[in-house]
Design brief:
GO terms for molecular function: S-adenosylmethionine-dependent methyltransferase activity. A five-stranded parallel sheet has the order 3-2-1-4-5. The chain is built from six helices and five strands. It has a single domain, classed as Vaccinia Virus protein VP39 (Rossmann fold), CATH 3.40.50.150. The chain is globular, with a radius of gyration of 14 Å. With 158 residues, the protein is α/β, with parallel strands linked by helices. Helix 5 packs antiparallel against helix 6. The longest helix is centred in the C-terminal third of the chain and has 15 residues. Helix 4 links the parallel strand 2 and strand 3.
Length: 158
């Protein structure tokens, strides 16, 4: 299908993060999903905050999780601008890393290496883009590929 919003376009996100550097959380802040994460995600486990195009963005989720005791949180985004901003801001915070990747492929993440994948608005953004049916199938397949055998995919959607 054709994109009805700019959220499916990589250029939208590069422009947005260049112009607006204020942090923003889609749908829920950490406090809103903390109890769900506590139930399903291990504090010592590998957590992946992976969202394509929208990506981890400049959300405080990773920072808040590490400050609450999660030891291994990796945030990925397909937008180099925001990955550089967040790496510079949180580079000294142990247990939190940022990288550039597309959640439809998660090429930088090994198979079966993640305890919990967090999607806060990713599926929604993919569904706003072109080839949404294929993109959403790729996103879910990539998440399932990187999850450990009893891993959890947490989707927060509108």
């Amino acid at each position: 299908g054709t994109a009805s919003t700019p959220y499916g376009k990589a250029t939208y996100w590069s422009d947005r993060y260049t112009k607006d550097t204020d942090q923003f959380d889609w749908y829920q802040r950490y406090a809103g999903i903390k109890s769900i994460l506590a139930k399903y995600a291990k504090k010592k486990g590998a957590i992946l905050d992976a969202r394509p195009r929208v990506g981890c963005g400049n959300s405080r989720l990773g920072e808040d999780m590490v400050n609450d005791g999660y030891a291994n949180v990796r945030c990925v985004d397909n937008c180099a601008v925001v990955v550089e901003q967040m790496s510079a801001k949180y580079g000294a915070l142990g247990g939190l890393t940022f990288g550039r990747d597309d959640a439809r492929t998660l090429e930088s993440v090994a198979d079966g290496s993640v305890d919990c994948v967090v999607d806060k608005g990713t599926l929604d953004a993919v569904l706003c883009g072109e080839d949404s049916r294929e993109g959403s199938a790729q996103l879910l397949a990539a998440a399932l590929r990187v999850l450990k055998k009893k891993g959890v995919l947490l989707i927060v959607s509108h």
